[in-house]
Write a structure and sequence with these properties.
By secondary structure, the chain is of the alpha+beta class. It folds into 2 domains: about 120 residues, Topoisomerase II, domain 5 (Alpha-Beta Complex); about 60 residues, no CATH class. Helix content is about 40%, strand content about 10%. It has 10 helices and 9 strands. The strands form 4 sheets. It has a 3-stranded antiparallel beta sheet with strand order 1-3-2. Strands 4-5 form a two-stranded antiparallel sheet. Helix 4 packs across helix 5. The longest helix is centred in the N-terminal third of the chain and has 21 residues.
Length: about 260
């Protein structure tokens, strides 16, 4: 026996074109991944999870001039208020902000075992401690003065910043990498002093042409500055990256032999 759909239910059925609906739904999903998870925001150089960690630490008082606190406590604050995606994902993101071989300028100071450049994992969050690094304060400085927009958190009980004020170009200084739907990025880190020199020149010469700008920045920003050190073979890849946004860099490792 075939079930009949009541007339009231028929009124709520919407006829859609399958191809158009697939395009719209896929685009919505892609944008959700890009904006909400996978790629950094150019304004503060942070992905949502990193931004939420730093803001939760600032708001919770885990600041450079305070004592270290258990990482498990910070993870709980982040997950409970801003990022309901599991404690391990939050802790892994936090660990990366501590590691001086992952970050050119670490944004979190840590005490305890936070892993090694090899495959060694960090100790459990109940055994490690953390607080904001001094440089991280420059990302949140002025946030209480209506410098950035806020939005509701996931349950609407509190608010979180859409972006951090970021008094230095963190995306260039610390770099970032991410894979989203249909796109990806891998930006190498740079020396903070060199980037600051480049920014100052750009502010002083806002009308500079493309060629003049490229030459001036290349004079001041010599190239990527990786935290573990290396030798970059040639400058063509650096020039291509600075000129077009895409470039290939070949590196040679620096090794110290010890007996």
């Amino acid at each position: 026996m075939t079930d009949q759909i009541p007339p009231a239910e028929m009124d709520r059925i919407e006829q859609v074109d399958l191809q158009l609906e697939m395009q719209r739904s896929y685009l919505d999903y892609a944008m959700s991944v890009i904006v909400g998870r996978a790629l950094p925001d150019v304004r503060d150089g942070l992905k949502p999870v990193h931004r939420r960690i730093l803001y939760a630490m600032y708001d919770g008082g885990y600041r450079p001039d305070r004592a270290f606190s258990k990482c498990s406590r910070v993870v709980g604050d982040v997950m409970g208020q801003y990022h309901p995606h599991g404690d391990q994902a939050i802790y892994d993101a936090m660990v990366r902000l501590v590691q001086d071989w992952s970050m050119r300028y670490p944004l979190i100071s840590g005490q305890g075992n936070f892993g090694s450049p090899g495959d060694d994992r960090a100790a459990a969050p109940r055994y490690t401690e953390c607080k904001m690094a001094p440089l991280a304060l420059e990302l949140v400085r002025g946030i209480d003065q209506e410098t950035v927009d806020f939005t509701d958190n996931y349950d609407g009980r509190t608010q979180e910043p859409v972006v951090l004020p970021a008094r230095f170009p963190n995306l260039l200084v610390n770099g970032s990498a991410g894979i989203a739907v249909g796109m990806a990025t891998q930006i190498p880190p740079h020396n903070l002093r060199e980037v600051a020199d480049g920014v100052q020149w750009l502010l002083a010469n806002p009308e500079a042409g493309k060629e003049e700008l490229q030459l001036a920045l290349m004079e001041r920003i010599k190239g990527p500055d990786f935290p573990t050190g290396a030798t970059i073979m040639g400058r063509r890849g650096i020039e291509d990256a600075y000129r077009t946004g895409r470039g290939q860099i070949i590196m040679r490792a620096v090794v110290n032999a010890e007996e």
